[in-house]
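[scheduler] slot 2 assigned
[scheduler] job type: sequence-to-structure, two independent chains
[scheduler] chain ordering preserved from manifest
[runner] begin chain α
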Amino acid sequence: MSRIGRMPIPLPEGVNAAIQGRRVTVTGEKGSMTRDFHPDMEIMLEDGELNVRRPTDQRHHKELHGLTRSLLNNMVTGVHEGYQKQLEVRGVGYRVEMKGDGSLELQLGFSHPVHVTPPEGIEFEVADRTKIITVRGVDKELVGQVAADIRAWRPPEPYKGKGIRYVGEYVRQKAGKAGKIA
């Protein structure tokens, strides 16, 4: 059996799950998520726990077993605690500003500001004198994708480290030109 797939997913206090065929809806205090799963995987709600079973030991079913369990666990964690990613803006003249409608306006050294509107279920927060962006939501996949899209506007460059990076991300610095001695 799959070590990940066979582990039950306990539902925390205040989190409810509804299963209709291959569609699972998980509702909690942070929000609600719905996802369709592969029809071969059997998802059951027993004694306040979600369990995933596979029909055979074929490789395809083994792969789906662990994936289905991980996706369900991410849904339960998302509606109970939520997910967040933090981005750090570094560079002279680089800054971030929140607009009234919840969107971001980024000054990243381009001739124009970059506007980022949050998709449904995502919210932004700007802290630490306009240098730290926090992306929050219940969908782990969507939070990571939105953070990656923001970082893609100006990834950190290896010479001075300017750009947008994840908080705690290490950017390896290059020496620069060989003739230039600091």
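[runner] end chain α
[runner] begin chain β
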Amino acid sequence: MEARATARQIRGSARKVRQIADLIRGKSVQNALDILQFLPKAAARPIEKTVRSAAANAMNVEDDVVDIEDLRIKTIYVDGGPMMKRIYYGPRGMASRMKKRTSHITVVVAD
């Protein structure tokens, strides 16, 4: 049985969030939550929240009763989201474009 959770438009570039996603891919949910709790990266918080949501989705399925110790992270992937375009001011009265990147996180857990 599988369960999935998606977090959309999370502030942070997909490249930085993928580094954290690579650390927990294939691990058990409890082990992944322990790793994410003590990781000093800002992107670890939204990933931790998404993993908890996927685990809760798996436990709330009406057919089966699943314990959190039995769940593993089957798939986790991070896609780029929309960019917020802002202006920052440079020297000699010039302006440049700044892209504030977002990302979409998808976690699939299975027993």
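[runner] end chain β
[qc] chain β: The chain has three helices and five strands.
[scheduler] slot 2 released
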